[in-house]
């Protein structure tokens, strides 16, 4: 018997980037700017593209593709950005209305939220049932 080996080269899939759309106000896409600010814009920009990666089941990390900064939350409910992925992870929860909420894993009860003007809201002053915490991940094909 002659054995034939099938040599298949592995082609990695293209990177999957995400837009996080928040339905509050007129609707905003989360963006991470290189100067360290975070906010929402109605029409997505190059800074709105995010790389979301699974750390474990239901836990994700969020990084701005263009800015290269990681999104983190403090114990006081404030968002900040970091150049390095530190221990901050986000719990990703699918709600009953099919929107997704992102909360701090190390500080339970602190949520990622945008105001009706597209500004950040303090994560400790909002709850998971408020529309300002509801995001719709829009992935690239």
TrEMBL record:
SMART domains: FGF
UniProt-listed CDD domains: beta-trefoil_FGF3-like
InterPro entries with a match to the protein in the record: Fibroblast_GF_fam, IL1/FGF
Pfam families (alphabetical): FGF
GO molecular function: growth factor activity
Highest rank taxon of the organism: Eukaryota
Family the entry assigns: Belongs to the heparin-binding growth factors family.
Protein name: Fibroblast growth factor
Taxonomic lineage from the root: Eukaryota, Metazoa, Chordata, Craniata, Vertebrata
